[in-house]
Amino acid sequence: MPPAAKRVPWRWLVAGRASRRLVLVVVFVALLLDNMLLTVVVPIVPTFLYTTEYEGTNSSVAPAQTEPAPPALKAPPFSSMFSYFDNSTVTVSGSMSAMDLANGTESSHLPQPLASSPPLPSSCPEGKEFLAKENIRVGLLFASKALVQLVINPSVGLLTNRIGYHIPMFIGFIIMFLSTVMFAFSGTYTLLFIARALQGIGSSFSSVAGLGMLASVYTDDFERGNAMGIALGGLALGVLIGAPFGSVMYAFVGKSSPFLVLAFLALLDGALQLCILQPSKISPESTKGTPVFTLLRDPYILVAAGALCFSNMGVAMLEPTLPIWMMQTMCSPKWQLGMAFLPASISYLIGTNLFGILANKMGRWLCSLIGMAVVGISLLCVPLAKNIYGLIGPNSGLGFAIGMVDSSMMPIMGYLVDLRHTSVYGNVYAIADVAFCMGFAIGPSTGGVIVRAIGFPWLMIIIGVINIAYAPLCWYLRNPPAKEEKIAILSQECPMQTKSYTTQKTLRDFPLTDDSDVEAENAE
């Protein structure tokens, strides 16, 4: 092979590592797999626990309670018997018991063939008390991922500031692969709980590092909004495929099959990261990032984080409670439990890609305000459904509205850091992920308790009213002010704006902080 041909793959690799689009592809695939694993368990876990624990226990007890039937006398399929009562011959089919022959009731089998047939089995599951308790257990299982992610996220944000984004992304892939394999071969509630918690660790590394990497690569606000919309499209696609894929594979192939497919896809993602990223390269940020606690004291960042939290809390409450409610009220088969989330996933995919572009034109604050109001209205309509087709409208509105909020708030987080703090994004996207995880931690864990106490419809009313009440707070994100030290830096970078900021500059009475001195030196 000539030397020029050998250099072609190496040149492609070097060009790929310098490409922003391929970085976007890596983040897209990582979020896709993370959220496929997030939602693929939604239709599987309730029915799996019901089958293994409730039906398994009852089937082992039932044989001990049944008494053996009296032995039946073998008879040919069609035999004739002479009746001494009316001197006639009667043709009977099947077998008859000794009691029938002794009492002369053989003719009773003939005139009433339908009455003796067993009733058709009902598709509604038994054990309503077990299902009520299962709401809480399934809710805690789903919430474990978000709770662990909630604890790990701040540490990952600090880690990305010190060693860069590449190594944490690859660590997230390794942990995600181990969690997926563990899901495939877990047969008890405890092992499923551990696998779900392990997924939270991997998801924390992948999401914080991935979103921070995108914000650092796409520095223009408009381009960053588009890139975030595409990346969140990967999140939406994972949510879209996960629940229907899991329900169909579990119903027709088996429990392990969807997780083994995801494990194979995770290996492909790891190979892609090895090619595009440099997981062995330590690349700390050149500028010291704003501390997490400083960002948490910023009211505008808190408003944006609250919008992410409450809008996603609605769908987080639906994940453990809607399948069980469908089993109780609609007698839904296994495959419908995951398909019920399909309209929400499709509309979320449309919403994130559509409003990644539109939100910048119409105003991201307005987009998120309308989105939260629609989330609340959609949740209020969910209990009105009488069958799976009645869920199409509310779930579609819910997914579309959450897509509006997510595609608006993720770029706003980066914009607020650029405007009011140091332009290092690991910590702020750790806060965004914490807000997202709080919704998915509080939602399932409290949702199961509320459903058992006052019922599923009241749960939807509570979270729907909360979203509608929170929506007006997004108005405060309409025109957030810049910090004074940030104004000075912006004035130096844009001399045409200097005149409008001179009055604010002279009114400053307090000295700059140590962090702002570093910012001023870097700006010079």
From TrEMBL:
Subcellular location: Cytoplasmic vesicle, Secretory vesicle, Synaptic vesicle membrane
Matching InterPro entries: MFS (IPR011701), MFS_dom (IPR020846), MFS_trans_sf (IPR036259), MFS_Vesicular_Transporter (IPR050930), Tet-R_TetA/multi-R_MdtG-like (IPR001958)
Protein name stated in the entry: Chromaffin granule amine transporter
Domain Major facilitator superfamily (MFS) profile stretches: 72-482
Catalytic reaction(s) noted: serotonin(in) + 2 H(+)(out) = serotonin(out) + 2 H(+)(in); dopamine(in) + 2 H(+)(out) = dopamine(out) + 2 H(+)(in)
Alphabetic keyword roster: Cytoplasmic vesicle, Glycoprotein, Membrane, Neurotransmitter transport, Synapse, Transmembrane, Transmembrane helix, Transport
Bilayer topology: Multi-pass membrane protein
Similarity comment: family membership: Belongs to the major facilitator superfamily. Vesicular transporter family.
One annotated GO biological process: aminergic neurotransmitter loading into synaptic vesicle
Cellular component per GO, a single term: terminal bouton
A Pfam family assignment: MFS_1
Transport is among the record's keywords: yes
